[in-house]
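Follow-up to my post from last week.
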Amino acid sequence: MTELHPRFAGRAAFAPPADYRLLPCRFLALDDHRVVVTNEVGEHVVMTRDQLRTFAGRTLATCEPLYRELKAKHFLFDDESRAALDLLALKVRTRRAAVARLTGLHIFVVTLRCDHSCHYCQVSRQTEDKTRFDMTPAHADRALELVFASPSPAIKIEFQGGESLLNFALIRHVVIEAERRNASHRRDLQFVIASNLTQIDDEILEFARDHRIYFSTSLDGPQDLHDANRPLRGASSYRAALDGVARIRAKLGPEFVSALMTTTPASLPRVTEIIDEYVRLGFHSIFLRSLSPYGFAVRTRLVRGYDITDWLAFYRRGLAHILELNRRGVRIREELTALLLGKMFSPSGTAYVDLQSPAGIAIGALVYNYDGKIYASDEGRMLAEMGDHSFCLGSLDDQTFASVMTNDTLHGMLEDSLPESAPMCSDCAFLPWCGADPTFHQATQRDVVGHKAFSAFCAKQMAVLRHLVTLLEDDPEAARILRSWI
Amino acid sequence: MAAALTDGAIQVVLDLRVYRLTAIQKTAYRLADRVTVVLGVIAGELAPGGDQLPATLQFKPGTSEPAAREVARQFYQELLDQELREQIADQTNAVRTLILAHAFSNADLIKRGDRGERGE
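User reply:
Got it. Predicted complex:
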């Protein structure tokens, strides 16, 4: 194409005056020169500050590529795009549809007994021989009544502990009873056992195979790191976990077992080793999880062993290593990143309970504790073990699903913590990709809303999301890999 | 622009014709981890009304002059952003309400006919 003579103004100068209106949007500085702008449904555009002022001042020329991008992504509408409002409303509705389906995740804490003594344990485990820390079959049956009273078409029952397999008899009872009830309810029913796998045997494996039960275990990295984090009297927790993983893969198939890691101070300099260990063991995903401020992690002050800045450096190094592995053809993804990318690019967002608006407490997950108490979140019962019962919604002895869902305290917490009305969150560009975490803020600030300027949750979300948007904008190869994880 | 750091504080005067009070308050809230912003008070006395709003940027003990001036710069930068956010909100609040109303106008918020085992 022929260049215009410098005496002539550019095409934009001759465009007809723009007559467009802005659609709701929020912006945030990405770096010194650029901002990221998002709309109500999480679509985003990165632009310079000058471009933002031009756009907001409604003086952007219609022939600019940015105009077309903003119009296509529903940041503005003009006389030619009146259908934009209908489309945007439809997208809003799609994104919020999950709220009406109510609780899909139901966590049964079948025992608080455990054979491990992990320094970062979030649930204040009890020693193995105290059977008074087991859930009773009567409470399990009452919990199942609540499970099937939820209108959710997809039900996931997750067994947790302590070490859940120390009460395998109750797991067996719940699975068989749930399947019996589901013959008439016809929900998409799934079971997951969270376990350190020390107790696994042929009987458990055969039952799991027959009922298509998934396993989620802990793997903190190489053996010395894992065993230091997760002491097991007289044995190696690492060897037990690996043995269990191998047996599940052989009996049920590789997709039936996944692993989670927790970042301790000892993990910080070893992120590439941890990731390489996951790859070596045949896992295709890793969740680089920071410590949570609950249970033994607080009592042992382990949670103060590093701050969010240290974890963010760990995460960035880890993600860079994972992207490099992907470039070399190794299939592995980072789960927090994948969850956030889902929020950024999927029309329906993600079901991850900790990143929902309204918060995922109770309406995303319910927890039935070993003692019959009902909690609005897994972290809520962890907080209760520390003496804060804010998230307790009563007892299985006298509550119904309807009474839990209409609990005034729950509604108060959901309303107060709603990001759309929370200070700082309400005008944050990352709002559509983020969520409320009232349990974290109750634990750290004694307030379900929390002052976000002092919030490690907010600092983590902001830094990770800025990093991801920057990668998507500035590194085409990384962007290609990241988009393949959605 | 900001004056010097004196007794751990920087005094500024904000023009309410340029920045609306909501934007100033949101800026103060957002920077609360770095500085406490006291609005409308000079040396313990309420400032007179009008278009000028005095503000004291009160820093934590031991904050150096360069660090304080950097936070003051961030304060003014954030003020501009907050003011722009208010301008965008002015233009879009009505249409946001319209879109949300339209999105949920057909939603049946009470699911009927799926009663639990105890008649829930």
